[in-house]
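Record pair follows.
FIRST:
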Amino acid sequence: MDMFFAAVELLDHPELTGTPVIVGGNRERGVVTSATYEARTRGVRAGIPIPQAIRLCPEATVLPVRGHLYRQKSRQVMALLSAYTPTIEIVSVDEAYLDVTTVHRLHGNPIQIAQKIRHQIHTQLSLTASVGIGPNKLIAKIASGSAKPNGLLLIPTNQVIPFLDQLPTKAIPGIGTATCQILADTGITTVKQLRQLDLKTLTKKFGEAAAKRLYENARGIDERPVTTNSPEKSISTETTFTKNLTTTSQINATLLRQSHECAAKLRQKTLLAHTIGIKLRTANFRTATRSRTVPATDVAAEIYAVARSLAAEYGIPEGGFRLVGTKVEGLVSKEDGFQASLYGESPRRNAECAMDQVAGKFGAILHPATLLQRKSQS
């Protein structure tokens, strides 16, 4: 889908069509979750702080996130797509893979199917979608990005290498800023140049798993099937206390522990989360939830930073909290490369992965030192 959250907002705000619009909060705080192309041409992109986006595009209109509307439209889009093939893999609220190799007689060739899909989405939902067609998921995904906005691009098998050769390395899903910089430092800025590196050289720079992925991607190789397994929608953990939590340190310690539990489960399931939320139940049994959309992550430190901020914004009511919970949702497969940490570029993520390995090998339960210190002082 094209600028999905922003496009849905424009349905309720048609007067803003053709103007820069940012979705993510208010002009003082928040993170950009979506923006119209008028704002994107000014440098606004998902994941940057709202104040930074305003400096880039002062005239932009900033709208709050309304997740329930986006989920509703997403369900309509996915239902429409499912009518064309039973082999559909939903990877996020606004993206899906369709395997149409067995439905040509029923719906036509891939281009005809793509045209029908785009027409239906536009006429029935008043939204636009860009479609990429290719021999595998990797090429289809890159093609869909190249087709934006509101376009269609077919890459036949015999044109995969010529197509890739004209692209910069950052066009490959999962190659983030840090990886691009490492490659650029050695003079590698295009996919064609990347393909000249042998597997041994790549392994020395990035490790075995990431090197294999880079080596195959540069050649358009992707053997992942389109899987119809329904994606997990969320991961959460919550704790009910016999004695209410009444201090910031108690609440933060709970959120930190829960963030590590959620992050470990994300990494175990090779998922990334786009939305982080908390659940708070007060002494008088009033339940409140807060959430924020962020760049996709499976790092506990990043989850905790958002959870702690959300809790601080809510404040501590009289009597404190009897329940505190942390939830991650908006889950996407890490195989689709939604952020740079896929290649182990985050020191924090490396440390947390090491914790996973120790726990898996020895069955040990590791905690951040901060939690151990608090426990010994309590």
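SECOND:
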Amino acid sequence: MSRTAEIARKTAESDVRVRVDLDGGETAVETGVPFFDHMLGQLARHSRFGMTVHTVGDTEVDAHHTVEDTGIALGQALADALGDKSGVERFGDSLVPIDETLVRVAVDLSGRPYLVYTADTPVELVGTYETTLTKHFFEALVANARVTLHVALLSGENSHHIQEGVFKAVAVALRRAVAVTGEGVPSTKGVLQ
């Protein structure tokens, strides 16, 4: 069973092409937003997904549309790659430390989009990246993947560490949730849509 998906999304603000393989493969990320590329690389590596992302956005305005539209496309690809979710673990969680930072994440491949995000970052910019875009990225991803995601910063002072901790913790939780550990859809309803 192939757990892969490709999504192309083109608007007046961006042109996004993504490919996701839940069972591994190559990673290549290019969005024109260097810190965001670094974070997407962390997401791919620690989820152990194969993931290619190529986004051309209106970064001369700012990174908002690039980040949002990439989140939309990645969420759609994740949903497509999961199919009917037969055999997956469904729930995943993680507790990820990076030096002084500690991030807790829980995910449910529920079919119901919901985000709880309590990981405010003390500094508004890391390089040229606006740290508020991270929450916006996950809002877009959650809405389109149709998953429930809780992200909580338990401790942290360094803004780079906090951002990286969030992406790594989400990646580990997703890796655990998408793992094939049984048969059938893991829901008493019989569907996760």
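COMMENT: Helices lie at 34-47, 64-82, 132-145, 159-178.
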